[in-house]
Write a structure and sequence with these properties.
This protein is α+β, with helices and mostly antiparallel strands. About 25% of the residues lie in helices and about 25% in strands.
Length: about 220
């Protein structure tokens, strides 16, 4: 079976990965990520299970939840110098929730009325209204939707100019172009010792199908 080894992938510079040229590539090299092999071994710092989405109208308790809906209203206020407040109302068929971000004015352009989005975090009730403060956002506006919705999402640490979203997309692109990744151990040894093949181990590390596939130390 043909494939690529980590040793071979170590010869491919990080700049050849889509989205990691220019400043982003420089930032990764400064952090010691200089090859495709380094990128694929850059472990996510945590995972977010978005395979279970809660209808907004059914929110209760204080646990972290994920909701999905359409942006209904957007406002940007600057009550004083060095302070901006973006308020966004997101609604689904069951209800609505207000999201508030402080000093993140770009959210007003990111979350335009009509945009479909997923938000995750803990919510609170203020004056009878559900509210989330500074939740992370994923938009349904590109063919990358499958990377962030209805599944377990890897959260990679930010590295310089490369935020978690850019890192996730770059790893996904690199992984697609690198598989199958060869295992240095013979097949019979992997089988007899009940080990996980390297190709599947690296794939599960970045994009597990469920929380059961997440490495134990990272759950």
């Amino acid at each position: 079976m043909s494939g690529r080894s980590l040793a071979y992938l170590n010869t491919i510079p990080i700049d050849e990965v889509k989205g990691l040229t220019g400043k982003r590539g420089q930032a990764l090299r400064k952090a010691g990520i200089v090859s495709v092999s380094d990128l694929l071994l850059h472990t996510p710092r945590r995972y977010l299970d978005r395979s279970t989405v809660t209808p907004i109208g059914e929110l209760s308790g204080s646990e972290e939840v994920t909701v999905m809906g359409r942006v209904r209203k957007v406002s940007l206020r600057r009550p004083r110098r060095n302070l901006s407040i973006v308020e966004v109302e997101i609604a689904d068929e069951s209800g609505s929730i207000r999201c508030v971000w402080f000093n993140q004015p770009f959210r007003a352009n990111q979350l335009k009325e009509g945009t479909e989005a997923a938000i995750s975090g803990k919510f609170e009730t203020r004056k009878g209204r559900r509210q989330m403060n500074s939740p992370p956002v994923d938009l349904f506006t590109s063919d990358l939707e499958s990377l962030v919705t209805g599944r377990v999402v890897p959260i990679h640490p930010s590295t310089g100019e490369v935020g978690p979203g850019h890192m996730r997309r770059a790893v996904h692109n690199a992984l697609l172009r690198s598989r199958p990744i060869l295992d240095p151990l013979p097949d019979d040894l992997v089988s007899s010792m009940k080990l996980l093949e390297r190709d599947l181990a690296i794939a599960n590390m970045h994009f597990p199908d469920s929380m059961d596939d997440v490495p134990p130390a990272r759950q």
